[in-house]
Design goal:
The chain is of the alpha+beta class and 197 residues long. Helix content is 38%, strand content 15%. It has 5 helices and 5 strands. It has helices at residues 2-16, 20-36, 45-50, 107-125, 136-152; strands at 70-79, 88-89, 158-168, 178-182, 186-187. Strand 1 and strand 2 form a beta hairpin. 8% of the residues are buried. The mean pLDDT is 82.
């Protein structure tokens, strides 16, 4: 009996201790975090129901098949005078700053454009009855490039533009970049576009 009493004493002390609540909170948060990482969908339910503020971390966001290629987005414009400018690359790389260690929301643009581009490349590769300009991914890319042109050339009167997606192997320079998609010529004024929004 004395042995049992001796073993239970630390438990009794920790229950009476004023630090019990924080310890239970940390233990519960740790348990929830670990459980939420399980691949089975049932373990994701607490995150969907109770985690209104997305406070339970999700470390499963890494792709099962990480991208091995980089996409570069280029465009060229034709001015109202009929001059065609050279291809220009859209720079989505944001210079890192110290505050980005805490919050780096501007990086989401690059990820979103990459996802849209990947989806467009998948759709284009599939045999389909629809025209590429009807794909939502194509329309999103067109609007993204149109917005980029407005930012890059505010003083140029643009009549239409064309964009291209170029695939590269990233840091591996043994492979040359290659264009994988070239758009149709699109009117710069969205109202003249062949599809409505």
């Amino acid at each position: 009996m004395k042995v049992m009493h001796g073993l239970m004493e630390p438990v009794r002390r920790s229950i009476r201790d004023e630090g019990l609540l924080p310890r239970l909170a940390v233990a519960g948060a740790t348990l929830l975090t670990l459980t939420a990482q399980h691949p089975h969908a049932n373990f994701n339910r607490p995150r969907g129901r109770w985690d209104v503020f997305s406070s339970i971390p999700n470390w499963k966001f890494f792709a099962p098949y990480p991208a091995t290629k980089d996409y570069h987005y280029t465009y060229r414009v034709r001015t109202a005078q009929g001059d065609t400018l050279l291809w220009q690359e859209v720079d989505l790389v944001v210079p890192r700053q110290l505050r980005h260690a805490i919050w780096f929301a501007s990086r989401r643009t690059g990820k979103a454009v990459f996802d849209i581009c990947s989806s467009l490349m998948t759709r284009v590769a599939e045999p389909s009855s629809g025209h590429v300009s009807a794909y939502p991914e194509y329309q999103l890319m067109t609007e993204f490039i149109r917005r980029q042109i407005r930012e890059d050339h505010p003083s140029v009167e643009v009549s239409d533009f064309q964009f291209a997606i170029v695939e590269s192997s990233g840091y591996d320079e043994s492979e040359d970049p290659r264009p994988v998609f070239i758009s149709m010529t699109e009117p710069f004024d969205a109202a003249e576009s062949q599809y409505s929004y």
